[in-house]
Amino acid sequence: MSFVRREIVIAPDQEIYTNLPNMHELINGRVAVERLPLVVMNRAPRILAFSGSLRTSSWNHRIAELSAKAASDAGANVTMLRLRDYPLPVYDQEIEASTGLPSHVVDLKKLFRETDGFLIASPEYNGSISAALKNVIDWVSRPEDGHPNLVGFKGKVAGLLACSPGRLGGLRGLAQLRIILSSIGTIVLPDQVAVPGIHDQFKDSDVIGDEGMQQAVERVGQQVAQVAAALGD
Ligand SMILES: Cc1cc2nc3c(=O)[nH]c(=O)nc-3n(C[C@H](O)[C@H](O)[C@H](O)COP(=O)(O)O)c2cc1C
Which residues in the chain show pLDDT less than 50? Predict the structure, then answer.
């Protein structure tokens, strides 16, 4: 829930009533500040959730799903995406110049344009993000007639996740993903989660064995939903 700050000025000789609904604080005994719900979006925020892995049984896809569920429970309208369903050539300016944007790029650009935020679970390959994820970002960042530059990224909120069997959980890749997305205008949430030892985490259930990690993954989903709603249309 978002709030707007409303100040109620009280005249010097006026008695101060402290039973205002939702009253939040008194400043110098003169101004009561009331917190009122602020409606900045009259619809559910739209979130696109995906992994940077093409693997059908990707661990990262699974944690993206967990976070997406939390975003959905927080009121977001979440679309799960599989990059595998959008095979693309490695970005090549000559392809773009000769045949234009591939149809899967046009489809992805529409999905990115129409979302308010992202949940991205990024596998770490050799200390960085996957080529597949960088390739999608590069293609989707290309201009398209009739649409503002970088419309698929600018002003949208992103929550970052990673997991790996390793001890850092993909943390190094997230640092780079943060720089890439920030450079094209995406508002990347300060909180992020990298789950280490992921191969030991999903034993016989759909939740992460480490309860703290499970909650952290859910929190990123909730925050993306809340911030996307607060940023408005
Ligand atoms: C080419 C390659 C490089 C990798 N480099 C790293 C790495 O730098 N750090 C790491 O934690 N795991 C690394 N891994 C292991 C991946 O974390 C692991 O394969 C993981 O399951 C991939 O994510 P996914 O399950 O979502 O597909 C690498 C795997 C591959 C195939």
Answer: 1-7, 10, 14-28, 30-38
